[in-house]
Amino acid sequence: MLYWLSAFSDTISVLNVFRYITVRTGGAMMTALFVVFLFGPTIIAGLRLRQGVGQPIRGDGPQSHLITKVGTPTMGGLMILFGILFATLLWANLTNLYVWTVLGVMLGFGLVGFYDDYLKVTRQTHAGFSGRTRLAVESAIAIAACVGLATLGRPPFSTSLAFPLVKDLIIDLGWFFVVFGAFIIVGAGNAVNLTDGLDGLAIGPVMVAAASFGVISYLVGSAVYADYLQIHFVSGTGELSVICGAVIGAGLGFLWFNAPPASIFMGDTGSLALGGLLGAVAVATKHEVALAIIGGLFVLEAVSVIVQVASFKMTGKRVFRMAPIHHHFEQKGWTEPQIVIRFWIISIVLALAGLSTLKLR
Q: Which of 1, 75, 178, 240 is least buried, going by the fewest C-beta atoms within 10 A?
């Protein structure tokens, strides 16, 4: 919205500042942070009043959670999404279709997560609605987004898969790209959802990944920087940096309330939406492979669940003491702050490794 003020820069030169993505990204970050700080207490109080006993705690999870986390309200993702949406609408160029596509994925996945959280709270069970139904709805949203992204870009690159480190290796997937891109978005959403099991555990790596893709979006969307770094230029994706900045700001605001002991949980409302958002940005910027590196912690969490389930079904034995893997370390005696901070460190290292692929060609 404020971007439109730059149209009057010929008359009032200071308004030219709204043309710069960096300025608007910083503005979105601070706006989202302020919005979550301002409305967070009211949202938490309202959710606590409506949910009563709060989010049901899994009986097959760590037994300590039945004591330390009982009564904590969920759906805290609502404050995150509100902060991101408000900041993006205020600071982004709203004529950019990449912005609307990513916001559409975020809100669509957020609604799926909200309904899942609603069922858990009202039924007082850790099981929401059917996993197959949830995946089907998520896939439909992701497929629609990928069709849009494929038509926005320049063919055949818009349906191609690019690889880091090798600048000339591009594989045109044709319309199979839609299936591949949807898999990335759905996988990212559910991987972040699996990571959200301890106070502050998921939001830290989400902010790290958002910061990384904020940089990637800015560079990929600039013809000058893309040419200098010998990465593939995708016109219009630079505007996604504004959304990534809003994610960081909203995440910082949420962390204030989610720091141990948490006053509120993110819930599926937030984790699915944020994961889907990151996946959509990765697909839009043609850095799907980089997402697997930058979001390696989320991949590890998801793989630990897959390995645990597969091992138990085939051999009757478990590889980990408990899955996802953060619960494994919890069972080994690591304290919650130890797990959270160490996992944050891992996510930062992986993000630096992912960003290094921009220059190593």
A: 1
**For residue 253, what pLDDT is reported?**
97
pLDDT at position 197 is 84
Q: Can you read off the two tokens belonging to residue 183?
A: 């898999």
Question: Is residue 191 within 8 Å of residue 296, measured between CB atoms?
Answer: no
Stretch 337-361: mean pLDDT = 92
What's the full length of the chain, in residues? Answer: 361
User: Which CA distances in Å does 116 have to 42, 123, 164, 269, 272?
Assistant: 22, 11, 36, 8, 10
Give the DSSP H/E element, type plus range, for residue 129.
none
Q: What is the pLDDT of residues 97-138, one digit of tens each?
A: 999 999 999 999 999 999 999 888 887 776 667 889 999 999
Binned at pLDDT 50, 70 and 90, residue 166 comes out as confident
**Cα distances (Å, whole numbers) of residue 218 to 110, 202, 245, 270, 305:** 25, 24, 11, 25, 34
Q: Give the span between the Cα atoms of 30 and 28, in whole angstroms.
A: 6
Query: How many CA atoms lie within 13 Å of 321's alpha carbon, on the beta-carbon side?
Result: 11
